[in-house]
Give the backbone structure.
Amino acid sequence: MQTWTAVHKQCKTFAIVCIIFRQKIDIQSTMLLTLTVIVLNLVIPVFGTDNDASSKAHSTSEGYFISIWQNRLYLYSAQYQADFLVWKAKFLVRLQALSKGEKKSCLGNCACKTKKKKKNQEPPEEEQAPPGAPTLEEKLVDSCSDESAGQEKRPGSVIDVEDLGDIMNSLKKVKSKEEGDGEPWMVKLNQVRKREEEEERREMITPALREALTKQGYKLIGTHSGVKLCRWTKSMLRGRGGCYKHTFYGIESHRCMETTPSLACANKCVFCWRHHTNPVGMEWRWKLDPPEKILLEAMENHQNMIHQFKGVPGVRPDRYEEGLSVKHCALSLVGEPIMYPEINAFLCLLHTHHISSFLVTNAQFPEEIRNLVPVTQLYVSVDASTKEILKKIDRPLFTDFWPRFLDSLKALGEKRQRTVYRLTLVKAWNVVELKAYSELIALGQPDFIEVKGVTYCGESSASSLTMANVPWHEEVVHFVKQLADMLPQYEIACEHKHSNCLLIAHKKFKVEGEWCTWIDYDGFQELVQAYEKSGGRQVFSAQDYMSKTPHWALFGARDQGFDPADTRFQRRNKTKDISGC
């Protein structure tokens, strides 16, 4: 109990200091930063960090509190670390200045002018300070703890944090007087005063984040975007087969650019293969790059990465030449692309360049989904069928994540273009509650349902997944068959064993006994251009640009989704590249 009393006291103290010095740290980040220090330095050493100790901690109420906050601390600690160090330096400089009796320089638009006007006015009797009473700054400098009470106070004394409460009370009285005259340069946001004119949006990509993502092979663009070469792009350049999108929808994997206009995400999924190095957030609060810059640099970086394969043994010359011209864009690299405020403009630019758009969202932004312009194919991640399991797997930042999730599925059902539910199966986590899955499918009525076994990405401090959580392909097939039996309007259409993935399609895509899950990309470009020219009046549907699926891509075919035009390659004794869409 004493530990949590200390936590509360430290949080309160930290918040008070931030308000006094008017730093750009909101109350949420202040609490989380303080909890980071307290939990990591006081609580975790008591319980330990190994699995056995963590289990013991979870058996107590305090351990349960730690397990909840550890997730949230992982989310915020990285992105606020730089802000905290800057604040700390400014805080120490200010304390040193106050200890020397220096006053904060006037900005010219503060309350000083008001004070000069009221210089000759006597304050009310009850508010007059007694003769010889210390000023507020002197009290801040000379305050000491109860232990040193009675000792002589002098400028330069060490400030005791226990006295900050009294200082704050005095400061509030002074501020309340100043606010009566009005200060247009101050606003109140999240219970912390901030200077409206000094409020600057920071860059999403911090130096630490840039270093981490660069090591993972990302080519970073501007302040919040990135592009990376998918392993299936490399595979198809060599004629070793394409990804499941090639099998299900007919994309040319060697001409697909995997990118994102937003590295930030509102979830921290346990199976995320990006090792949780990207920032998190529930709204856009960073500097904003124009969509033209993002697309131009994304295409340039992608082409430069393709250029590196020139002359590489095994690369097919025809595929290399085709790969230099981007035809598809998978907005599924990392983060939540729909958070980008200019996402609609970015999508329109893609279509202007005759590039198809495959956008994936995590179902936490329903209004953004509703406001989205037509895309070639819109995905929603459905990682669980119940509220409890979704919270456990996705670890969302939003407290109202479940209503947002359901509303996002409803918003998806309102779209006229191709829509997809993406289910990632994690053994022992989300392979139950089939009936609940069928109810979610009835809610959004997607055109397709992709069911894929989770990809193990190695050990991570933010995830407890192991190879035991990866289902075999036969287990995925069994799950899909059970699910399809509960969906009278759907059937199993395609399979890609290499990706451990199957496709359930709506029967409206089965024309005269033939599946038409592939996409007529040229037809889509004509339709979307007509839509834009008409100002959105000339609408179209998913069935207007569907194309026949080849036999080798169908479920039950001998090739199990591998294109016979390519040559199967068996990897032996090499580290597997797990990147890809």
In short: The CA atoms of residues 357 and 567 lie 28 Å apart. The mean pLDDT is 78. The longest helix spans residues 61-99. The first strand starts at residue 186 and ends at 189.
